[in-house]
Amino acid sequence: MPKIPLIDVKAQFAPLVDELRAGFEEVLESGQFILGPNVKAFESEAAAHLGVAQSIGCGNGTDAITLVLSALGVGPGDEVICPAFTFYATAEPIALLGATPVFADIERETMNIDPADVARKITPRTKAIIPVHLFGRPAKIDELKVHGLPVIEDAAQAFGGGDVAKKGIAATFSFFPTKNLFCLGDGGLVATNDEELAARVRMLRFHGSRDKKTFEYVGYNSRLDEMQAAFLRVFLGHIARWNELRREGAARYAELGLGELVELPKDEPGHVYHLFCTRSPERDKFRDGLAAAGIGHACHYVIPLHLQPSMAHLGYKEGDLPETELAARENLCVPLWAGIAPEQQERVVATLQDAVATPVA
Ligand SMILES: *Cc1c(COP(=O)(O)O)cnc(C)c1O
C-alpha cells in the first residue's frame, strides 16, 4: 500500500510548475532579488484578498509577530496574553522582546483561546492579546476586543478563513511550505488596517529605516524575497479554491463516519482546516494504528507552551491549564490537503476502524 502523507504539498503545486518556472525565470532575468516589484505586487494583492488596507511581507511568520509587537512598543515589564496550545512561535517573540507571555486556557470545543480565561488574566500590565486561529478555525476576536487592548491575530494557519485579519489590530501569516498559503521556503506577512502601525512595521523589517539612510528605530532584517513573492502571487490565485477543497475533504471525513470513532472538529463557515484535528481519549491507539499503516498523522503541542523548559521561569505547573493539557493528550491530526483523494480518506477511516477492533496488547 502506498503511504499517505499528512499534507501532500507537492501534489498541490505540481499542476502549477510551469507558472512557477516562469516566475523564477522572470526574477532571475530581473536581477532584483530583495524587496522588488514582486514583493510590492504581492503585498497589494494579498491586502486586497484579505480585505485590509496594508500588508507587509517579511521573513517568516515568527518575525511577523515580532515586528507587530515591536511596532506596538511591547517590551520589559509588559504582559501579552496568548494560548499555550499553539506552535512555540506564538509566544517566543513576546519573551524575546523582554515581555512576559501570560498563557490563557483554550475552549474545549474549538481548541482556540478561551475569552473567559483571557478576561481573568488581564492585569494593568497587559499590553496585547494574541489569539491563534488554530488549525484554520477562526478564533473569537470580538470577545477579545471588549477589553480595549490590541488584538494581534496569529493567522499562520488560516489565510483566507472567514473574517481573519479584518478584526484585530493586525494579523500575522506564515508561508512555511505546509501552511494553507505557502511559498517554497520561508516567508511571512503582516496585514493591518492601521496605517501608522503598517508604516512602522515596514520600517522595522528594514533596520528601522524608511529610506535606507536614516535609521529611526533599532529594527530587524526580515524581508520577503522576490523569488518567494513571485511564487506566492501564483499560489494566491488558487488559495480560495484550495481552502474550498480542504473544506470538502473535511466534510467527506464526516460522511465516511469518522465521527463514530473520534471526535471531529466542529464545522463552521470560515474554517479553512489547515489541519483536520480530531480528538479521542484513546488517541494513542489510533495514532499507533496510523503509524503501522504508513499513514501520516500528527499529535500537536504535546508539551504545551506553559510547560516548556524555556518557560519554566514563569512558574506554571501541570494542572494550571486543564483544557490545554487535555487537548495535548487527545488531539490527532489526520491527512488533509487541497486535493486529497476520496480513496485516500477511505483508507484513513478504514485504518482507524481497524485500530478500534484491535485488542490492546
Ligand atoms: C507556523 C506558525 C508560526 C511561525 O511561522 P514561521 O513562518 O515558521 O516562522 C507561528 N504561529 C503559528 C500558529 C504557526 O502555525
Description:
The protein is α/β, with parallel strands linked by helices and 361 residues long. The chain folds into two domains: 9-103 and 111-236, Aspartate Aminotransferase, domain 2, CATH 3.40.640; 239-357, Alpha-Beta Complex (Aspartate Aminotransferase, domain 1), CATH 3.90.1150.10. It has 13 helices and nine strands. It has helices spanning 9-13, 17-30, 37-50, 61-71, 92-96, 115-121, 141-145, 195-204, 226-236, 239-255, 283-292, 322-330, 342-357; strands at residues 54-58, 79-83, 100-104, 126-129, 152-154, 170-174, 188-192, 276-279, 331-334. Strands 1-7-6-5 form a four-stranded mixed sheet, with helices on both faces. The protein has a three-stranded parallel sheet with strand order 3-2-4. Helix 5 (92-96) links the parallel strand 2 (79-83) and strand 3 (100-104). Helix 4 packs across helix 8 (195-204) and helix 11 packs across helix 13.
**N-C termini distance:** 24 Å
Q: Name the structural class.
A: alpha/beta
The domain tally reads 2
Provide the spatial order of strands within the biggest beta sheet. Answer: 1-7-6-5
Give the low-pLDDT segments.
Answer: none
Portion of residues in helices? 25-40%
* Overall CATH architecture of the largest domain: 3-Layer(aba) Sandwich
